[in-house]
């Protein structure tokens, strides 16, 4: 009798999959930093009972139509906008993600990005490395304070709450906007629920933690940036598609807002010719929000547990 087949769309450490080798025929794309080519994924999915996918894979109607045995797709992320969930549901295919396990790590990165942008850390590092530091001056690379400022969190899910917890330690005033009020979070964190427009108007730091949906696509646009303070800093650790990047470039060039820190982009990866990378008042990171060794390991383990649970009939731990 043939073993159930699992295909993993990126190379992951062998020790994480070895414990499943007796139960499953496990195959994976052998490159860690390059996405699996579409034609290979099409070929592999025809035989797979389970798929572990990355955000770089488009799991669409066409692909799912070629997967007669597929029971589960485990996405190595909280978001799942790369997957046609409706098409999967029609075919009885379970979609899972990796919530909770990455919330604190992503919040760490988000707050580090906020601090690096506010205090011009990357710019200062490059200043020394390019031998520009000749003398000390009172306002040399002066940034802006973080403590006692107002942070506006757009999207008060698990990561948003974790960001608020860090902000509380800096004695920041915490505002948030969400589809629904989180009264427990308000009590625990001292956060205040406000309208989106009010958040934009009052916040020194606007942090996007919203999922990418039809409603949030280009949520941050020309009009949005104009409603923010000229001194405000925009941070995005959610999805690149929630931002109109041309409008953001224009806002940064023309000092509509002060600066931006970005871990995500509309089309990834970007290269050195991207307009945002030509601006000194932007800090850009290569989508590393949950990228700690501990968290990525736990995310992979959770994906494997989800796939195993569905195939063995126990069900998924974290179904979408």
UniProtKB/TrEMBL annotation:
Keywords: Oxidoreductase. Signal peptide: none annotated. Residues 111-289 form the D-isomer specific 2-hydroxyacid dehydrogenase NAD-binding domain. Gene3D superfamilies: NAD(P)-binding Rossmann-like Domain. Residues 7-320 form the D-isomer specific 2-hydroxyacid dehydrogenase catalytic domain. It holds the Pfam family 2-Hacid_dh_C. Belongs to the D-isomer specific 2-hydroxyacid dehydrogenase family. This is 2-ketogluconate reductase. It comes from Oceanobacillus caeni.
